[in-house]
Design brief:
The protein has 341 residues and is of the alpha/beta class. The protein has helices at residues 4-9, 30-39, 42-46, 49-63, 76-81, 115-127, 141-150, 158-166, 168-192, 209-230, 247-254, 267-273, 286-291, 294-306, 326-337; strands spanning 67-69, 84-88, 92-96, 133-139, 196-201, 236-240, 258-261, 280-284, 312-316. The longest helix is centred in the middle third of the chain and has 25 residues, at 168-192.
Length: 341
Amino acid sequence: MPGLLLDTLNGKRADKVPMWLMRQAGRYLPEYRELRAQKGGFLELAYDSEAAAEVTLQPIRRFGFDGAILFSDILVIPHAMGQDLWFEAGEGPRLAPRLLDAAWQALQPAVERLEPVYETVRRCRAALGPETTMLGFAGSPWTVATYMVAGQGSKDHAETRGLAYRDPAAFASLIAAIEEATADYLIGQIDAGVEAVQLFDSWAGSLAPDEFERWVIAPNARLAAKLHEARPGIPVIGFPKGAGAKLPAYARETGVDAVGVDETVDPAWADRELPAGLPVQGNLDPLLLLAGGDRLVERTGFILRAFAGRPHVFNLGHGIGQHTPIEHVEALVACVRGWQG
């Protein structure tokens, strides 16, 4: 029997609202910090299947979330496509060669780098009960491309946006290559035991409307179609962070099965503007979870009421912050679990 989360992603409403939190397996948990210290670094942890499975399962044991999200990183795709990947302490990921200076066609693919991720999924699915949905994920092509082009994260993605304007044909070829690698990767996750997948377009909000259509909506629509054709019945969650007023068009045109809503979107507006019956996910501000208190309880109730008329997965508007107190997460879980829709 599928769990509450999977039923909700498949369009069923229930009195109870399922929940999971983006980055729920991570630095706010003391057991995570202890294990990472043993492994010596993020990438070492992510590619160690036994350790990555343990990290994935830690928040399930502690909070009983309805979904276990695979512990990995969106940049394993550029790594598998042939870029070097490492993490600078305190500064984040680095990729080389950066594709502002080189063509992706010169990269030497190394798809074997993804094998530990599939093994992590197998280990997690074997350890989880049927009531807990195993969630896989990947970065959407635009967001992954911003790192591949610049070789690191950036505030406004100016180098990638500039390349897309100057040479749209070359940039389209990169997007297509990421798209193909991502489809194969997500199918591999599904075959290993994932029951739903999320496409993270974390930097979708940096694009102008016509560029959003070209580099966010179109690639995600192709990806969703490929996944639906290859593995029918597996829900696809699309999360275009920062989409704002473009969110309804994304929902209509991509063909995703559920839409993630970030914290900047009014949930009452989203409920009114999104297609009727489409499952939604979100959208508590991670900073409010960090702050806690009465405002946390009030806002949680507001979100639950706003989405009460459609299938709703409670989540944050983005990833949980590393300094979030455990007791605030416990309070949030109690609020959502106690909700009577």
